[in-house]
C-alpha cells in the first residue's frame, strides 16, 4: 500500500507540471467532440439505415474516453521515452500503411484502413505524430552536431512516407505532413536556397498529382467550377453554414445536415455551424487558435532543440489539420476527407490526435532546466 501511495503521489505531482491552459483546451475539445457527434449522429445513422439514432455518438464518447487515457499515458513519458516509443511506432505503422494500400478494403477509391471488425484502423493517423517526433530527433541532432545528416534522414523519411501514402492514395495526409516538416526544417536552420528549392519541388509535385491522379484532378476541377453533382457535398455544407445564421437552429434542429454525406466526420464543422451558428463556428476556430498560440509560444522557450521542434511540429499537425478541415467546409480548398481533430467521428483520428497532444503535454511541462527563461504564468 505504501508503494501504491508513493506512485500515486508521484503521478499527482507530475500532473501539476502539465501546462494548465493546454489541459483546459484539451478538455473542451473532447467535450465538443461528444456534443457535436450527438448533433450529427441521427442524420448519419438515418442515411446508412442504422436504427440506433445515437450510434455514432456512443462510439465517439467511447473513443473520447480512450483518447483521454492515451493522452495522459503519453504525457507521463519523458522526452527520451517518447523518442524511443515514436521510433518504434514509426517502424511499425509505416509498413502497415503500405500493407493497407495492398490488402486493405477499398473505400471510396482508396485503401487506407484495416477492418478489424469492431474497429477500422487507419495506420497513417498513428504514424503522423510518431513521424514528427522522429523528424524532430533527427533535426535536433543536426543542430547540435553539424556533421550529423539529420536533415537528410528526415527528408528521406518524408519522401518514403509520401510514396507510401500516395500509393493508397492519400494526397491530403501527404500534403499535411509536408506542411509540418517544412517549418521544422526552417526552424532547424536549413539554408534559404533549400527552402526555395522545396517550394519549387512542392509545386511540381502538385502539378504531377493533378495530372496523374484522376480523383485529385476531379476534386480540383470541382473546386474551380462548383456546379453539378460533383460539388454536392461542399454546396450542401455551405447551405448548412448559411442556414445556421448567428445563433444556429438549435441542438438537434438541423435540417440540411440530413442530406449532407459524412456529416459526422468530414463535414462536422458544417453541422456545428447549422445547429449552433456563427458563434460556435468562431468558437472552434478560436479554440484551435488558442492551441496554436499557447503551444508554439511555450515551444519557442524550450531549451532542448529536439523538444522544441517536436512540440512545434505536433502543434502544427493538429492546427493545420483543423485548418484544412474548416477550409474545405467553407469551400476555400478542394474537398478532402480530412477530419477535425478531437471533433470528427473516428477512432484512429481520435487516438492519433490524443497521441500528438499527449506528447505536447510531456514536452511542454514545467521541469528544471527545460526552459530558456520562465514564463509569465510562473512569475506571478
Radius of gyration, in Å, reads 21 Å
Give the percentage of residues in beta strands: under 5%
In terms of quaternary structure, what is this?
A: single chain
Number of strands: 2
Catalogue the unreliable spans: none
Structural class label: mainly alpha
Describe this entry's structure for a reader:
- The chain is built from 14 helices and two strands, in the order ααααββαααααααααα.
- The protein is an all-alpha fold and 380 residues long.
- The protein has a two-stranded antiparallel sheet.
- A hairpin with a 4-residue loop joins β1 and β2 (120-121).
Ordered list of secondary-structure elements with their pairings:
Elements: H1 2-15, H2 20-47, H3 55-75, H4 79-103, E1 114-115, E2 120-121, H5 123-144, H6 150-166, H7 171-187, H8 192-212, H9 214-224, H10 232-244, H11 268-299, H12 305-329, H13 347-363, H14 376-379
Helix pairs in contact: 2-3, 2-11, 3-13, 4-5, 5-6, 5-7, 5-12, 5-13, 6-7, 7-8, 7-12, 8-9, 10-11, 11-12, 12-13
Short description:
By secondary structure, this protein is mostly helical. The chain has helices at residues 2-15, 20-47, 55-75, 79-103, 123-144, 150-166, 171-187, 192-212, 214-224, 232-244, 268-299, 305-329, 347-363, 376-379, and strands at 114-115, 120-121. The longest helix is centred in the last third of the chain and has 32 residues, at 268-299.
